[in-house]
Amino acid sequence: MPGAAGRPPRGEARRALILEAALRVLGEEGASAVTHRRVAREAGLPLAATTYWFASKDELLADAYRLAADTDIARMRRLSTEYAERARADLAGALTDLLAADLAASRTSLLAAYSLWIEAARRPALRPIEEEWTRAYVEVVEAVLRDAGSPHPATDAELLVATLDGLLLAQLALAHPDPAAALRPQLERLVAALLRAG
């Protein structure tokens, strides 16, 4: 992406371009495809640009994961405010719409995030990022469940976040033609069970 007057990006803008390219490669081809050479080609930059900013594949993956986590945590917190009233009235519907919108708009981003999640199982350096990302989601969902009347919002939030991940992974793998239609009955049943549990 050229900068002002068509000049190639420099400094932090170039670093961000490399990380965004790494996430695209992850989402489209998987972690094994993430090499300095492949990411440089995806970013439209010389190989020296990636090796200047990132000494190793591990460093590139960790910084790409950090970017993905920070971006998504900010997005989730913003959406939780926007969806708050709707979630109080129809939590299952709000969650269905949110997941269906994510699947429609950001399939590559979701695949990149889940690829990195799996990589965190193999690469201990990635685990603190995954733990922070999951914790942020659980905190947001806990607040939503508390507002919706859950008798056990902390425990229910952990269960709901884990379930949402499983549902998203299934939709990514199966590519259901109408994800909302598949997700809605599952989420209605789960939310009803959580909100009535004593």
Structural notes for this entry:
It is a single chain. Helix content is 80%, strand content 0%. With 198 residues, the chain is mainly alpha-helical. The chain has two domains: 55 residues, Arc Repressor Mutant, subunit A, CATH 1.10.10.60; 137 residues, Tetracycline Repressor, domain 2. α9 runs antiparallel to α10. The chain is elongated. Keywords: DNA-binding.
| Average predicted confidence as pLDDT | 90
Uncertain residue segments: 1-5
What amount of the residues lies in strands? under 5%
Q: What number of domains?
A: 2
Task: Find the count of extended strands (DSSP E, 2+ residues).
Answer: 0
CATH architecture of the largest domain: Orthogonal Bundle
CATH class of the largest domain: Mainly Alpha
| CA-atom Rg in angstroms | 19 Å
Structural class: mainly alpha
Major pleated sheet: none
Principal-axis shape equals elongated
What is the chain-wise order of helices and strands?
A: HHHHHHHHHH
The CATH homologous superfamily name of the largest domain equals Tetracycline Repressor, domain 2
Distance between the amino and carboxyl termini = 54 Å
Number of helices: 10
CATH topology of the largest domain: Tetracycline Repressor, domain 2
Helix content: over 70%
What's the layout of helices and strands?
Blueprint: H1 11-29, H2 36-43, H3 47-53, H4 57-82, H5 84-89, H6 91-105, H7 107-122, H8 127-148, H9 153-174, H10 179-196
Helix pairs in contact: 1-2, 1-4, 1-7, 2-3, 4-8, 6-10, 8-9, 9-10
